[in-house]
Design brief:
By secondary structure, this protein is α+β, with helices and mostly antiparallel strands. The chain has seven helices and 16 strands. It is globular and about 70 Å long.
Length: 313
């Protein structure tokens, strides 16, 4: 099992005194996203869980590269250099084999995003970001179609590089990775063994905000009576936590920890990390062995994903 807790990193603003009342005001401000996680790999036993190894990485920094089109005169030539480079994070809980397969897809797609220009059925054009494996109007008639020199200005390209673009491609990667399961006649137990949850956070360079989402697998029985894997996507607002893994046992208490921080204007990341370690102590004391240290706390602030706390076993 796993315990991962992610949320919006809220920190205290500088104190200031009102010129009229002299009352100090200390409010919480957005300062990125946090993710706290244990690091145990376990296997289920009849009497609980057995820890197989510790120090397993459950939070990953993913490089985001959005490549700009390169023109020779009025003709598209290739994608030679990235226009935007940043990072996001993905956290995992569940099957390590499924997670590895999905993470490979996410890394591949986010590292090769491309800016292009498409037209809809009515001939209305728009700038957009696509994956390198998608059909691209620029590449379709490269060396034939002529493009105006006033297209693909910085203002055009800046507007389409958003957190939603990153998150949408993470969701696509998860779904695309799991489509191969459809060709096999898997039963409900097979699909349960594949079950994996994901949390993903990204910074939006357009709106200057951070966004946090969860992606949870859902078993769906199709019309042929065969189970397929669906994905439930949920955005996590700043007053909520996202819990992966031991959600039933600890989500409510993790949320209470966050609620208390917001009510008392206390920083959220450290408090939630302390709670995660309390949860680990409880599980260890029970002899169940589902989660264990080392535990880690990381912060995503714009395009910097940094480890800020680490607790050894």
């Amino acid at each position: 099992m796993t315990l991962v807790i992610a949320g919006h990193n809220l920190e205290k603003s500088p104190d200031y005194s009102s010129a009229w009342t002299g009352i100090k005001d200390s409010k919480l401000k957005q300062a990125g996203l946090f993710v706290a996680a244990d690091s145990a790999i376990t296997k289920p036993l009849s009497s609980g869980y057995k820890t197989l190894l510790g120090g397993f990485k459950k939070t990953y920094s993913i490089l985001v590269k959005v490549w700009e089109p390169y023109f020779v005169g009025e003709y598209f030539h290739s994608y030679m250099s990235p226009y935007y480079e940043g990072c996001c994070f993905v956290a995992i809980a569940g099957s390590t084999l499924t997670a590895q397969h999905v993470m490979n897809s996410i890394t591949e797609h986010l590292g090769h995003l491309r800016i292009t220009h498409i037209r809809d059925e009515d001939g209305v054009g728009k700038y957009t970001v696509i994956r390198h494996c998608q059909k691209n109007p620029l590449e379709k008639n490269a060396g034939i179609d002529q493009w105006d020199e006033n297209m693909f200005l910085h203002s055009d390209m800046d507007a389409v590089i958003t957190a939603d673009t990153i998150i949408d491609n993470i969701e696509y990667s998860i779904r695309e990775s799991l489509t191969s399961a459809k060709q096999y006649k898997l039963d409900e137990n097979d699909l349960k063994s594949m079950y994996t949850e994901f949390a993903a956070g990204a910074f939006c360079p357009v709106n200057k905000i951070h966004k946090l989402f969860t992606f949870r697998m859902k078993l769906e029985l199709n019309l042929d009576g065969v189970y397929e894997i669906g994905i439930v996507r949920e955005e996590i607002p700043s007053d909520k936590v996202a819990v992966l893994g031991m959600r039933t046992q600890f989500e409510a208490r993790a949320q209470k920890t966050l609620d208390s921080c917001i009510k008392n204007s206390e920083p959220t990341a450290e408090a939630v990390f302390n709670f995660l370690n309390e949860a680990i102590d409880e599980v260890i004391s029970s002899g169940n062995g589902e989660i264990d240290r080392p535990s880690v706390l990381k912060i995503l602030n714009q395009n910097n994903f940094e480890k800020v706390r680490f607790t050894k076993r």
